[in-house]
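User: These chains co-purify. Model them together.
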Amino acid sequence: MIPELGHVALIIAFVLAIGLAVVPMWGAARRDVAAMNMAPSLAVGVTVFVAVAFALLAASFLQDDFSVAVVAANSNSLLPPIFKFSALWGNHEGSLLLWVLILSGWMAAVATFSRGLPLVMVARVLSVMGMVAVGFLAFSLLTSNPFERLLPNTPLDGNDLNPLLQDPGLIIHPPLLYMGYVGLSVPFAFAIAALMGGRLDASWARWSRPWTNVAWGFLSLGIMLGSWWAYYELGWGGWWFWDPVENASFMPWLMGTALVHSLAATEKRGVFRSWTVLLAIFAFSLSLLGTFLVRSGVLTSVHAFAADPERGLFILIFLALVVGGSLLLYALRAPSVASRVNYSGVSRESLLMINNLVFTVSTIVVLLGTLFPLIMDAFSLGKYSVGPPYFNAVFVPLMALVMPFMAVGPLSRWREDTTRRWLHELLVPGLGVLVVAIVLAFLGSDDFNLWIAFAVLLSGWVALGVVKDLWRRIATGVDGGLTWRRLTPSFIGMTLAHLGFAAVVLGAVVVTQENEERDLRMAVGDVETLGAYRFELMSLGQQAGPNYLADQAVFEVRLDQELIAVLVPEKRRYFASGQIMTEAAIDARLWRDLYIALGEPIGEQAWAVRLQYKPMVRWLWLGALMIGLGALVTAFDRRYRSQRSNVTAAQSGVAAVAG
Amino acid sequence: MRAKRFIPLVAFAVLAGLLFRGLSIDPTELPAARLGQPFPDFAQPELNSGRQISVSALSELPALVNVWATWCYSCRVEHPYLLALAEQGVPIYGLNYKDEPVKAREWLAQLGDPYQLNVVDKEGSVGLDLGVYGAPETYVVDAAGHIAHRHVGVLDEAVFQRDFIRWFPAAASPVVAVGSEGEQ
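Assistant: Joint model of the two components:
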């Protein structure tokens, strides 16, 4: 009964979404206030019914209802309850429902927090989001019904959740990632609404800015968690693979990065207006494209969902309608007059434009690399796969290119600035960073490492610009005193995110350059060293988990005779699937990780063991965390709230006219 | 000036066309050129014995050639069905594709071995000759040693009864496999 109720709830949500897609849009065209006023309630209605469907599917998972096909395929009675719950989105059908749930959550949030916006705008924004919801609800109901039953052949127990996904990181990774992915639909909807209304001014940018920042922040956090999970769970200590599915989430992030910066210029100075709209469309289009690539089976990937051409065709048609429609609207309605705002070549506008260029080119480069196998295949030129060498070769220089400008950006002035002032601000500290970079590069290893010197130089340079800007803002009190008044949330967020970016770059380069690993055969009592660390295999044993049996090896790690860690890597065999999983043991510190993973048993008493020393690998995720949190912090800026109350006054005017 | 604003739309149209083509390149269809051709020759080690073998080692025909690897999750889903097929007397040869032989042997020891023998294709060169798209994949090699059919993805009872049965009429009775049909 529960699954049927869930199915009905989903159908009701679908019908309400159609209403949301049609009625307020019609109302906006006819200036019908009553029809436009329905938008928020319809949006909340969709949310409620999707949430009910989601809750009922969750109930089926928690109650081990194996008559439901997705439960039978992805859960098991032995699975711990928390994984029974997260198994809901460990598969195509369930994760699609999560997608829709989060989309409707964003709709409800827009409906709630946009009361101060002009009614026409709110109606159009929610209606556009409603259209997206119609597409995805139809996708779910028509091709991927999560409530499909296996009757009368109900299995006694389920197939189990893929053990790779039985991990705390995977409980929150998909929801966070989807928050970001789907959240980009909000700036998209604002852009479309603005195009329809023909009002592409600064207020449009100001409205969509906090939403964009929050969505982009969630996307950053989601990608970070995915990378972290891959690091400790896949068992070989890698943290980024340029896998098509990773790229699918990375491309919207890159485009979102450009969008976040471009919106700043549009809001503050009214420049790049068409461009910003285009970026908003692109960012969400790439989210949709990612969904298509992951779920259609067009590209093969390590973590692809079940491929199904029928589903692929559905998303492709949907993609063509949404993206094609938006771009057509853009072509017809984008402002035909170039903005009359002037700025000189040496100004913050120019620096933001460089940011936009670099991140757009990066997106294209990643897109090309991801689609290249498909392109070659489509023209029957053979089967190819594009690997990390390509992506590293093109991506690393692009990031190195943008960093010199990052330090200057926050310090620079709008409209017109002088290089002399930039030199004055940054010359001395810049030289200081140069010296530090050269010295540090000698310290890290025996030989001078150019890459590390380069990374320290660039990251230090960025950090320096940020710190200098911070200082300039707080040291403006009278008599040399400090003042904190100018530290607005948006400034703090920007500072955090830029420092985070510097940390990610530094961590990535150092761990790539200085990573040490050894593959060894070790028996009890064996001692091996890696750098200054001494690893001793103390004992081998077995340990039973709730749904698996683990072989364990106990290692003692010493540095200068002092015991610094006891590490217990495991090899787990899961009962239901028989699948073998490597659980790496990690001693994590700010400056280095020690990483032990078990390979295969060799004979009775020995194991193949991989020992790794990974300096500064934590900086990657801490940095990404700072980027994500920084983006979230900016949304608390008072500016957005006060602007709303201004709008309220203006809107009552509009309403009066419309009414 | 105005025409410029159609550039994104045109670019997207090209991309959409490409994606559509990508969908219609059904990877499960064998390129017509390879259908009816002799199974490509190879010189690779056998997984368990380590001895060098060639195409002549596929002696019991018609047979299935199954492309698998330990890194392939779907292969694990498919595995019980292969065991059931082997039980029914269908000869299955394995192509252990881009895999670690140590892990592959461990896998067969743990999950059971449905294969007559296994060709070790660590570099994927046999796979390249064959046009392998990914694992799992299953080919029918007919009595004359020619490639007669190809299936990409998990082989299960429904697929076997529909597409494979005419080469293996003896396996006509439904095979009951444990836990196939799963989505990955």
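The longest helix of chain A spans residues 202-233.
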